[in-house]
Amino acid sequence: MLLKRQLVRKEAAHSAPVLSVCGIGTDMIVSQGRDNRLCLWRLDAGEFSGSLTLLQAVDVDSMNFCKFSYCKAQSSDGSSDGSSGALWIAALEDAGSGKGLLYDVDSNRKHSFGIGRKTRTMAGGREDSPMCMKLVSETDRRFVLFVGYESTLLQRFEIEVSDTLDKCVAKCTDIVDSDHKEPIMCMDIDPQQQLIYTCSADNKVCRTSIGTEDPSDGTSTGLLSNKGGSDVCLFNCSVSPGQFVAVAGWDYAIHILDKDLKYVSRVAYHREALTSIDVSSQSTAYEEQIADEMVRRRWSLRPRWLVAASRDSRISLWSVDSLTKDPA
Known about the structure:
- The protein is about 5% helix and about 50% strand.
- The protein is mainly beta.
- It has a four-stranded antiparallel beta sheet, with no helix packed on it. It has a four-stranded antiparallel beta sheet with strand order 5-6-7-8, with no helix packed on it.
- A hairpin with a 4-residue loop joins strand 24 (about 305-310) and strand 25.
- The longest helix is centred in the last third of the chain and has 8 residues, at about 295-300.
- It starts with 17 loop residues before the first strand and ends with a helix.
C-alpha cells in the first residue's frame, strides 16, 4: 500500500529560481540558484520529519544556466569506488571572463581556473559561454573536466591540485566540434570509452569521442521526434543488456535510445517541458555484504528506477526495465 506523505520541510533556499538540486550520500543536499549561490545543506531526516541546515554557500555564476557537477575523489591508485572519497564540486565562477572553480568541500577551499575560449562572430570576437560541464576524478588530486559551449564545441581539461591545496592548474588537452547546430545544453559521459553524450536545442542527441587519437571513432548522432533536450543520462539495464541513453525532452516526453543512438521508446506523462532526469545507481557495496546466496541474487535483480522532473512541478518515477524492453 502506498501511503501519502505530506510535505515535511520547505526552505527559502534561494532568492531566485533554483537551477539544480541533488542529494549526495545520505545526509547532504546541494542546490544552485539563479541568485548566483551554490548552497550545501545538511539533511537530518527521520521517518516523519526532517530539517535542512545550511553548511556552506559559494558564489558562482548561474546566469547562463550552467549547472554544477560533482564527484568523489578516487584514491591515488584508482582503487576506490568513490563512495568515501573527498567531495569536489565544479561550477562556473564567471562566464564573462571564462573562469571556472573547483571547490573542495572538506577543506572549504575554492580554486579558480580558466575554461574560457574566444569565438568569432559577425560583431567580432567574444567569450564563448560554457553551457554545461561534467567532473570526473582520476586521483585524489587530479581531475578531468568536460565542458560544452554555446558554439557547440566540447573541451576536455586536465586539472591538478597541489598537495598543499593552495594551487590549481587546468590544461586544455582536447577540443572537438559536436554535430549540434544549437548551443549544447547538457551532457553525460562514458569515462572508460571517453565518449560524451550531449543534447541541444535542436533535435539531435550526439555521441562524441574526445581525448582519443581518432575523434571520429565512436562518433554518432541520433534524432529525437521533437526539438530540445534539457538533460541526458547514460545508464545500464539488466533486462536488456547494454547501455542506454535517456533524454528529458522539451516535448514533455522521456526519450530512450540505445548506446548507438537508435530510438528505443518514448513515454509521456508530464504537461510541460522536462527539466531533469536521472537513474538510480546499482551500487554493489551492500550486495557484497550479503552472506546468503539466494538473498544476494534477489538483491542484484532489484528494479532500477528512472526519475524525471518537469516545469509542471511534478516528478515521475518509471521502471527502467519497462522503458528499455523491445516493443516487439
